[in-house]
Amino acid sequence: MPRMTETTGTPAPDLKIIETRVYRGPNIWSYDPAIHLVVDLGSLENFPSNTIPGFKERLLAYLPRLDQHHCSRGRRGGFIERLDEGTWLGHIAEHVALQLQQEAGHDMRRGKTRQVKGSPGIYNITYAYADEAVGLAAGELAVRFVNNLVQPQMKNGQPAFDFTTELEKFIKQAERTAFGPSTQAIVDEAVSRDIPWIRLNKASLVQLGQGVHAKRIRATMTSETGSIAVDVASDKDLTTRLLASAGLPVPRSESIRTVEEAVTVANKIGYPVVCKPLDGNHGRGVCLNLQDADAVREAFPIAAEQSRRGSVIVENFVTGKDYRCLIINGRMEAIAERVPAHVVGDGIHTVAELVDITNADPRRGVGHEKILTRITINAAARQLVRDQGFELDDVPPEDAMVKLTLTGNMSTGGISIDRTWEAHPENIEIAEEAARMIGLDIAGIDFICPDITQPVRETGGAICEVNAAPGFRMHTNPTIGEPQYIAKPVVDMLFPPGATSRIPIVAVTGTNGKTTTSRMISHVFKGLGRKVGMTSTDGIVIDERLVIRQDASGPKSARMVLQNPRVDFAVFEVARGGILREGLGYERNDVAVVLNVQPDHLGLRGIDTLEQLADVKAVLVEAVPRTGYAVLNADDPLVRKMRRKCSGQVVWFSMAEPGSEVRDYIEGHCRRGGRAVVLERSDLGDMIVVKHGRRSMQLAWTHLLPATFGGRAMMNVQNAMAAAAAAFAAGASLHDIRQGLRTFSTSYYLSPGRLNEIDVDGRTVIVDYCHNAPAMRMLGDFVDRLGESLTASSELGRPSRIGVIATAGDRRDDDIRELGQVAAQHFDVVIVREDARLRGRKRGESAALVEAGVRAAMENGARCRQVDTVLEELDAVKHALNRSNPGDLVVLCVDQHQQVLSELESVSHLAQAGARSGDEGGDPDFVPPDEEPAEPERNSPDLSPCDAVHRVVGVCG
C-alpha cells in the first residue's frame, strides 16, 4: 500500500532524485546536451495527476505558461490533456524543469521521461538545458515544487516552501551565470553559422572554432584585439593626445594627480569642466558640468577612486548629445544616442515612485544581466535631482524630465536610441579614423555633439573617449529604434566568408581494437603533415607528444584536444563509459568508426544486454552529419544495424569470404556508388582492397604490414582495414594510406602496450592489453599462429606458451570466468594477476574467478596444464619470465605497460634457462606446495591435462 499522510489521507510527497548526470554532447537520450535525472516516485507511483485533488489547478496557478506545452500530443495544451487523463509526477517534473528554464529566459522545450525497466517507481527524466548550472537547479527546484504541490511542506506551523521566493532565487542565479548581452549576441551569430563554441570559464571567455582555427572572445574583446591598443584606450590622456595629433576633434584636457592641480587646470581650461578617471569605464567616477573650483574639489576624489593609476583627467565640458559610434574592423556598424537615466513626471507620482515604476520594467535588471539596467538612487542622484529643483518626495509636473545621472551610460540606467542611418558621413569618417589611430579592432567612439546628422567640425563637438570592449546591448536592443545585428561583422572579422572553423574529427569506438585503430589513423595523417591530436586509454597525444598520461578516452579529453591551437586533425578513441557519463565531448564527428560490439562492460550503468551496448556505441554514428561517413564492421550484426542511424554515407569493412551473404551485400552497396574495404584471398596471401563504386583498388598485402606480424595477427588486419576505410573517408589518398600502414608497427614507440614484441634473453615476449574474453579469442588466434611459426623454427622442440592475464573487477562474474576459459585454450601455463584498481572487489576475488574459469577449461581438455596466481602485476611478469625457457612464447596482458617494459629491461638478465620449478634460478618469492610433483621435462610425451598443477602466489585472504 502507498504511504499516506496521517492528517489528510493524501499521498506523501516522496519524489526524490537518486542520480544526476549532465550530458555535454550527443548522448543515448538526445543529440543535444541534456540533464538526466533518475528519480524515485516512492508511494507517488500509485497516484497519477488526476487522482490528486486540485493538483492541476495549483500547478497552473504558479506556472500558467505550462498550458503552452505540446507534450507528446504535438499541439498546444497537450500537456494539460495529459494532466487531465492522469500522468505520473516524474513526467510532470520534467515539464516543470523546462518551464522554469523558460521563466529564466532559456527557451528549452525538449524532454523525455521513461520508467526504468523492471524498477517500478524509478524513472529516467531527461530535458534540454542552455546553461549547465541553471539546468541542474531547474531539476532540483522542480522536484521540490512538485512535492510541495502534493502536500505543502510546513515548519513550525508556517509554510516551509515559498515557490515565489524560490523562483526569484532561481532566476537571479540564472542571470548571474548567463552570458552578457554582447557575448550572447556573438555566440548566437556563431551558432547560426555552424561555428562550434566552448565556454572556457564561468564568465565571458569563449572559444569559437576548433583547434588551429580557434578564435577567442571575452565579451567584445577578441583574439584579434591588440594589447597595446587596449592599453592606449585605457589611458584617456594618451588617447586624447593621439587623436589630436591626427587632427580629430577632442576636448582640451590634462592629466593631474592632486586636487590643487585639478583646480589649476580647470582654471586654465575654463569652466565648465569634466573630471573623470584616467583609466575608468562604464562612466564610473565621471563628473560633468563642473561650474567652479569648489565643484572640482568635490569631484576629484570621486574620479580618483575609480582610477587604477590614481590619475584624473580634467577637460573642458563639451555640450551636446551623447552618441556612441561602434567601429568593427575599421568600419562604422552602429550609432546609438545615449540618454541619461531619468524619469518623466505624470503629475501624480513622486520622483522616487517614478523610479520604482521605471525599474519595474522587465527589461531592466542588475548590471548587464538584461538589456536595460535598473536606476540606482545614490547621493549623486539626490543632489542632481535637488539641482533641478526637486526632492525625491516631490511630484514633478506632467511631462517634466528629471535627470538622475549626467552620463548616458547604459550601466547607470540610461536608455538608447538607434541613430545608425542618420549620421553624417564626415562624422562616420572621424569615428573610423579614431579607431584606426588607437588600433582597436572593435572600438566604441564616444561623440558629444549637438546633432550627429551635422558635421561635428561645423556644429562643434568632440570625441570624449575611445573604448575597448564596448558593450553591444545599446545597439542590439535599443530602447527606441531598430536593433542592429552587429555580431555579424564581428564573426565576419574572425571567420571571413569561406574560412574554416572546424577541424576534421574521426571518432573510433568498439569493444576491442579502439586504441590500435586510432593510432593507425593518426599515423596515416601524421605522414600527411597534419598536426594530429589523439585521445586514447593511454593519454592525450598532440603532434606525436604525449602531453597527458592517463585514460583519456572520455569527453573531457576530446574537448582538451579541440582547445589546442596546434591541432588541425583530431582522432578520438571513444569509450562506452564516457558516453554514458557525459555524452560525446563535441557536437559531431566527420567520420565515426565502429569496430565491434562484444559482451564486455555489461551490467554497468544500466547496460545489461548487447543490444543496449550497441545503442550506446551507435551515438557516434548518430553524430555523423550528412556530409560525413560511418565506417562500420559488416561482419558484426549489431554494428551492421547501425547503418539506419547514419545521416551520412556508410563505408563498410569486412573480412568475409567472397560469395558470402555479407560480401554480396557489400558488392551491392558498392554498385550503388558506395565505399568499402574488403579482404581478397589468394595463394599469394591476403590483399586489402578498397572499393568505391565499381572501382576496386588494391591497397596492401596483409603480410607486408608490420602490425600484422606477417598476417598472423588477424585482429590487426581488421584494425588496419578499419583505419584504411576511415582515412579514405577523411580524404587521404590510397598512396598515403598505404604508406601509413606500411610504416606503422606495434613497436613500443608507435603502439605502447598493444602487441609489442620484445626479445628477452631468447624468449619472445608479447606485451598487450587484452582484458576480456572476445579480445582473448583474437589474441589466442594470434598466439596459435605465432606459436606454430616458433615451433617450426625452433631447434629446442615445441616452445611453451605462457600467458599472464587479468580483467577489470567491475565485470560480471561469468565474463571474468569466461576470460580464463578462453585463455586456457591457447596457453600451456596461465598466470593470473589483478589490476591495482580492484573496482569494487576484494583483493584476490577477480583472480579467483579467472582461475576458476581456467580450471574448468582444463577439466574439459583445454591446452593449459598449469595455472598460477600472482596478484601483483610486476611480480606476475617476473614469475612468467622465470617459468620460461629460451625459445618460449610469453604473452603479458598488462595494465601498466610502462612499468612492465621498464621491468623487462631491468630483470631480463636474471631469467635463466630451466628456472621453472622454484629452484635457485626461479622466483625468490615463489614457494610451491609441499606435495607438488616435479615438473616434467619439456615436450614430455607422458604429459597430459590431468598432470596440471595449481599454484598460488600472494593471494590475500
Q: Could you characterize the architecture of this molecule?
A:
- This protein is of the alpha/beta class and 957 residues long.
- Among the domains are: 16-177, no CATH class; 252-316, ATP-grasp fold, A domain (Dna Ligase, domain 1, 2-Layer Sandwich); 505-598 and 608-743, UDP-N-acetylmuramoyl-L-alanine:D-glutamate ligase (3-Layer(aba) Sandwich); 756-908, Mur ligase, C-terminal domain (Protein-Tyrosine Phosphatase, Chain A), CATH 3.90.190.20.
- 33% of the residues lie in helices and 21% in strands.
- The chain is built from 30 helices and 41 strands.
- The strands form nine sheets. An eleven-stranded mixed beta sheet has the order 27-26-25-28-24-29-30-31-32-33-34, with helices on both faces. Strands 35-36-40-37-38-39-41 form a seven-stranded mixed beta sheet, with helices on both faces. A five-stranded antiparallel beta sheet has the order 21-16-15-22-23.
- Strand 15 and strand 16 form a beta hairpin.
- Helix 3 crosses helix 4 (132-150), helix 17 packs across helix 24 (714-729) and helix 26 (773-793) runs parallel beside helix 27 (813-824).
- It is elongated.
- Mean pLDDT is 88; it is low at 1-8 and 910-957.
- Residues 920-934 have a biased composition (Acidic residues).
- This is Cyanophycin synthetase.
- Its EC number is 6.3.2.29, 6.3.2.30.
